[in-house]
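Supplementary Methods S3. Input chains for the assembly prediction are listed below.
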Amino acid sequence: MIIETHALTKKYGNKTACDQIDLSIEAGQVYGFLGRNGAGKSTCIKMLTGLVFPTSGSGTVLGRPLGDVSAREKMGYLPELFRYQDWMTGLDLLNFHAQLFKLKNKKDQISRVLKLVGLVGQENYKVGSYSKGMQQRIGLACALLPNPQLIFLDEPTSALDPIGRKDVRDIIVSLKDEGTTVFLNSHLLSEVEAVCDSVTFIHKGKVVKSARMDELLMTKILLTIRANGLTEELFAKLNKQHESLQKLADGSLTVSLNDYEEIPALAASLIANGVTLYELTPHRETLETVFMQIVGEEGQSS
Amino acid sequence: MLNYFPNTSVTHGMGNQFKPFAIQMVTKMGFQFSAMLIALLTIMLGSGAIASELESGLIQGILSRPIQRYQYILGKLGGLVILACTYATLLFSLILVIGAFFGLSTITSLTFSQIMTGWLLYLLLPVAVLCLTLFGSVSLKAVSNGILMIFIYILGNVGGMVEMIGQYVSNNSVIGTGIFISLISPFQTIYSTMERVMVPNSELAASAMSAASLSGSGKPASLWMFLYIAIYMLGFVTLAIRKFSNKDIT
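Predicted structure tokens for the full assembly:
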């Protein structure tokens, strides 16, 4: 495991930011870390990167205990609130971080990351004159300098335009192809869905669900039904069998099914009761609907 | 200033003695104001050195790299010491050059040993201020730290004055209070010792300055006091490292 934590807890006075976090992350995957604002995601990342000290619990990152400096030699981190020395040029900043990483082949690595983040030709301008998106790119370049085995990206696309977001997605995919483990914290669920292999949902400092992305999204099928002749009596009868059955404003129905095999039976039942079927459209559940279910339910229950 | 002092009560009736007195005053004030300027600039440099990076979040990108936290503190201290000492050396040299240019006997009569000792003591002042300010920068916000450090620095001047008043009225408890204040803020003690080295015959000038309420000036510091100052500086750097090493970077 490239990251392993046991009951990792962080308290600030009476407030618990992270509560008994257990993570077990295999190397070489893109790992999504999801939750609402203030759920404790950034605090958890900061504990893993050694910026914040846990109140209790333990863990290892790259086989070293949390906070161990040697682990950071092969670890990249792009903070959520990225801020860099704005009086430096992009090149100066990369040189500075290359020195912090004690890199031997600084020049090669700097030109590699500049190319990767699309800042070639912009490196001699002052960081202060960069747009927010360019600052995020230079931050990403700094994090990629040591050719990391593990990289933490805390909201890496928050300041980027759609093209920039796609570029970052491509970088994440190429990092994964090279065997780098990417720990991604993002509110852009479509982005997480597109690149992550596994996700963990965190709510009010606690892990509420961890699963592989394919397992998470394949568990439920959302079926949209357009039909005519559905009586209230029949709707009530079907609702007893399928609690998730809902009538939408445009008159169509939606129902959440566990399996594709349930679709023919439902269609047969509708036809047998004199309903005229025009359309049956199954959808895979999106990460957004899963997120709303998991985090929303937790929010209501707490 | 040369027009002002002949009319004061201190210089009244001094006749031909006035010129060396005025020269001493110019030299003393040159050192005094430049030392105060250096101390305040050092406070400005040091108060936000770490605090402002903590506040802006800039530090997150640095401390997530493979460096120890003590290296960060010592790196900051080293850089600021070089900067403050360079500036202090520049000012110190300028005072000497200007004094020599106008043929001030207080400057032209200085020996090499006096200049070197004076220079080292002059450098010690910003370094000592920096050690305390850096600890404040780890513990407080930049602005609060700056205000507190200026207060502590001025407190040292008050301590010198209190000690001097104690000596004047021969009251041991007042002297003790002055010494206690100097232990909290030993910067005036460093300055006074430097002044005694660079302007050795400045007792008359010192009394004139004190009469004008510009500064206090106690006895020159003993070797024990300098040992205390060394412990004071090391202590605050150690405390800064210790506090910073356990600090959550949020």
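The radius of gyration of chain B is 20 Å. The CA atoms of residues 160 and 230 of chain B lie 19 Å apart.
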